[in-house]
Amino acid sequence: MTSSGTNPGGPAGVAAWELLLPAVSAPARARGRALQEALRQAVRSGRLAPGTRLPSSRDLAADLGVSRGLVTEAYEQLTAEGYLRSGRGAGTWVGGAVRAARTRALDLAPRSLDARADFVPGTPDLSLFPRAAWGAAHRSLLADLAHHDLGYPDPRGLPRLRTALAGLLTRRRGVVADPERIVVVSGVAQASTLLGSVLHARGIRAVGVEDPGSPQHGDLYGSAGVGTVPLPLDDEGPAMGPLRRSGVRALVTTPAHQFPTGLACSARRRAELLDWARRVDGFLFEDDYDGDFRYDRAPVGALQGLDPERVVYAGSVSKSLAPGLRLGWLLVPEALAGEVVERKRTMDLGHPIVDQALFARFVERGDYDRQLRRCQRAYRERRDVLAAALAEHFPGTRLTGIAAGLHLIADLPARHGPEERFLARMSAAGVAVRTLTAYRHTCVGGDAAGGEGGVRLVLGYAHLPPARIRAGVRLMAEAARDGRSS
Ligand SMILES: Cc1ncc(COP(=O)(O)O)c(C=O)c1O
User: Fold this and answer.
1) pLDDT digit string (tens) for 350-370?
2) Which residue in 377, 394, 447 sits closest to 119, CA to CA?
């Protein structure tokens, strides 16, 4: 290599041309395009920083062993696209318009495929997805759909699906559901960004969130420009004192099965929360993410049923069918309905029609209830298997949040702490596991996250067949023991 790029505004001498070499070994026909793509990537990734001066086309062609025409063409193309800039007599340099993508590890797909045991919560058993029934519904649906059904949908969602959902949610979750107030969305996630955006347009810049709680809430509302105020829990639900003092007028809450502690919000606290919302003229956002699964008694009805004008209710099929379907619903109070529907319209012109019609059919035919019953049976068995395995391998463990949902909380005896050491042992043994601390926001004063020094695990079980649960707990116990004996 004889050339090196120089950055006139900073330290000179960025020898980055090696990263173009793989493009040069592309077949002759594809070499030009490969060179252009390699240059684009180098700029996008920040390896060629803005201002970096490129070698002359003659020098670079000589260095890479390609024709000068190929390099000239690449420079011209990328200059036209805005990646590079050039000036008469001034050569070619990297433009400032492109910003390197910021990469941050997303915890959206936390399954670690190479973990020997994986108790990370959040996913149902995807092998229980009813492929045959879904496939049959899909085929018959396509045969029935009229051409005009394939036009842009009502931004609230297909009337047929909203009617089916109103029946389903009234029956199963005790909500007050008027099909006119239902908006079909792509999951609780989109429901949150829609609401965040509506609040932002109303000048509201912060919502309260539960601490510990789902990291998704902060990310989603934050993406709409609405910050989150972490608020502690007590043993009845969100603690009222800190909520009242916080000054927020909206609270995101998971009353059926608090995420992640598994606490069910008490009847008294529900009444207090609603009273608070009325006093501040605010709203409660009920995230009913796993409200369908309750094992030891009838499901706790949704908060929305107590005051549909103060509670925005959101749910989805992510825990009952599959998160990849991206299908959910929002029940909105009258005061927000127009703004939410308008925001949904400007966001994507409505939810995909085939998915909506398919799910409507699935609900109407009782297939969805069948699926919920099937999952309910499987998950209850798995919960019991996990509880028994913990009692055998981690005697003295206290379990909470076990009455519902897809995960439970296990307080291990103090001898397994401190937490960092326990997690290091698990990681070394290939066990993917989360502690409650991982779901703490930065708030101080909450006591629901457990005593200092102990290990409080959030164990997802729904995605694991019983044999894998038993083997996983055994592995966890061996790792904990080996660590202690060494
Ligand atoms: C508590 C909670 N709410 C909402 C979501 C997002 O749900 P959806 O897939 O319906 O967008 C998640 C995702 O894991 C979650 O954990």
Assistant:
1) 999 999 999 999 999 999 999
2) 394
